[in-house]
């Protein structure tokens, strides 16, 4: 699909679109934000006024069928990603969905099927594939700076704000019927997708998930081991109910000649350790963190560079996560 200009519509113009991902849609060359939608019409109107958008809707179908819209950014919870993406692609509109790609892997496959049938592009908002710090780490791996990559280890431990909340106050991220699983799907998806970008697809994975603290319905503690197509061995541990003193956010990549460590979500720097000593690279975080990926989408649609985050890559990440937590959710059904 070749477009002269990308005219976006947003379905779900909530908090995530205020700074992180919404402004690039109208700040980039050959990219315009022409319509927004939110079920609460007053909030959609307010967003439109503040961001200089001409049209607003309270009905997603009306936005999808707006003749001025040729690309739809779906920034709703995961349980509606497949529905809206499929409707958009069937209407001939490019679909760009937030992560994780869908509530489950089966929905991802259905989205890919429709994209192939309609020949309409499908993208997923794994924007770390276009962020400076993450591109630098990939370049260090690809250039052989740390030698032959051997292992990668992930650790993400966060405290539970839900501990002090009633069920009504809790965010949808901890309700599997909406999110697909818990915080693991929301946050580990970024980490695992990035590793797919660096090392290629994960071909073997096993995992354990449990709800230990009992604060909310979803799993709160997860561990996994995995192997990449490239031969690199990986492991990860995630816990979303630790004390503040135990919080941790680390990606550690070890090779035959050195090691790279950096956070995935925090503002810390990238550290390169080799026999020559340690180098530290400052974290150059742009104002709109999704802007780099949106730029690549726009460039691809208008005849330029390729976007590295597609329906195929997004589905791989969903498949891996589903495999890691499947025993926990199978036991719940039993």
Q: Looking at this structure, what is the CATH superfamily of the largest domain?
A: Dihydrodipicolinate Reductase, domain 2
Radius of gyration based on Cα positions: 20 Å
In the residues, how many domains can be counted? Answer: 2
Largest beta-sheet characterization: 8 strands, mixed
CATH class membership of the largest domain: Alpha Beta
Strand-residue fraction? Answer: 15-25%
Distance separating the two termini? 46 Å
CATH architecture of the largest domain: 2-Layer Sandwich
Strand order of the largest sheet: 8-9-10-7-11-12-13-14
Number of helices: 10
From the 3D structure, determine the CATH topology of the largest domain: Dihydrodipicolinate Reductase, domain 2
Number of strands: 14
The percentage helix is 25-40%
């Amino acid at each position: 699909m070749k477009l002269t200009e990308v005219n976006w519509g947003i379905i779900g113009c909530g908090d995530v679109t205020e700074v992180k991902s919404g402004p690039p849609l109208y700040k980039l060359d050959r990219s315009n934000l022409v319509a927004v939608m939110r079920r609460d019409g007053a909030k959609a109107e307010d967003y439109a006024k503040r961001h200089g958008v001409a049209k607003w809707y309270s009905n997603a179908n009306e936005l999808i069928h707006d003749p001025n819209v040729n690309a739809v950014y779906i920034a709703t919870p995961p349980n509606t990603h497949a529905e809206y993406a499929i409707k958009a692609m069937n209407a001939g509109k490019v679909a760009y969905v937030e992560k994780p790609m869908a509530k489950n892997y089966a929905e991802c496959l259905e989205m890919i099927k429709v994209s192939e049938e309609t020949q309409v592009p499908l993208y997923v908002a794994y924007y770390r594939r276009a962020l400076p710090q993450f591109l630098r780490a990939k370049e260090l791996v690809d250039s052989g700076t740390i030698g032959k990559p051997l292992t990668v280890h992930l650790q993400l431990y966060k405290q539970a704000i839900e501990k002090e909340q009633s069920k009504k106050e809790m965010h949808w991220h901890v309700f599997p019927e909406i999110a697909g699983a818990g915080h693991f799907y929301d946050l580990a998806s970024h980490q695992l997708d990035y590793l797919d970008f660096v090392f290629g697809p994960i071909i073997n994975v096993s995992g354990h998930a449990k709800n230990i603290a009992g604060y909310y319905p979803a799993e709160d503690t997860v561990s996994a081991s995995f192997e990449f197509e490239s031969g690199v061995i990986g492991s990860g541990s995630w816990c979303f109910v630790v004390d503040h003193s135990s919080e941790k956010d680390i990606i550690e990549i070890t090779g035959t000649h050195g090691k790279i460590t950096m956070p995935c979500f925090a503002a810390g720097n990238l550290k390169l350790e080799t026999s020559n000593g340690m180098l530290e690279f400052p974290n150059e975080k742009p104002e709109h963190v999704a802007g780099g990926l949106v730029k690549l989408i726009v460039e691809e649609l208008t005849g330029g560079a390729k976007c590295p985050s597609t329906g195929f890559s997004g589905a791989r990440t969903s498949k891996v996560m589903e495999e890691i937590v499947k025993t926990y959710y199978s036991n719940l059904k039993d």
